Amino acid sequence: HMPPGIEPSPDKMLQGRLFSYPDTHRHRLGPNYLQIPVNCPYRTRVANYQRDGPMCVFDNQGGAPNYYPNSFTGPEDQPNLKESRMSVACYDVQRFNSENEDNVSQVRVFYTKVLKEDERQRLCENIASHLKDAQHFIQKKAVKNFTDVHPDYGARIQALLDKYNAEAGKQDMIRTYTRSTSRMSAK
């Protein structure tokens, strides 16, 4: 645990230990080693994406989604705790910038050139049948992603979702996930 605003130095031994110690804990104690009372933070609850497994001593984090990014209880950026821009002369390890990655062109080629018309329709039906139980705002995000791939792809899925939602008389209910703030007391 490091206090906010303090970062480790670029010392190679320290950097190796920052990786190996938590990895060793996961190996010896399981993925939930941070929940064990002797290892957990003193005044707060562990909030990561680990579920189940050995040493799960709390409520499995309240059933909240265990993936990032998510629309419910995901971590939020804290601009006051920005990373320092310390210049390091060694270029063995660098941060990979995935900001401008192309995430749609291969899918577009698959949808337009590989799939036949009946296969496209089945794909859209399968996707819509799985999305129909999701909340409306999640459906909209998904349809936007499919529309970015190809306008026809998004339009077909949207039409099927509209049909499913009309049949079900679906209300836009917002599900929320909460984490208990109580700590497990050591007995």
UniProtKB/TrEMBL annotation:
Coiled-coil segments on the chain, per record: none
Cofactor(s) for this UniProt protein: NADP(+)
GO molecular function: catalase activity; heme binding; metal ion binding
UniProt keywords, alphabetically: Heme, Hydrogen peroxide, Iron, Metal-binding, Oxidoreductase, Peroxidase
Biological process annotations from GO: hydrogen peroxide catabolic process; response to hydrogen peroxide
Principal localisation: other
Subcellular location: Peroxisome matrix
Gene Ontology CC, one term: peroxisomal matrix
Every Catalase immune-responsive domain range: 99-160
Domain Catalase core per the UniProt entry, residue ranges: 1-73
Superkingdom: Eukaryota
Pfam family, one: Catalase-rel
Listed PROSITE patterns: CATALASE_1 (PS00437), CATALASE_3 (PS51402)
InterPro entries in the cross-refs: Catalase (IPR018028), Catalase_core (IPR011614), Catalase_haem_BS (IPR002226), Catalase_immune_responsive (IPR010582), Catalase_sf (IPR020835)
Family as reported in the entry's similarity comment: Belongs to the catalase family.
Protein name: Catalase
The organism of origin for this protein: Lepidochelys olivacea (Olive Ridley Sea turtle)
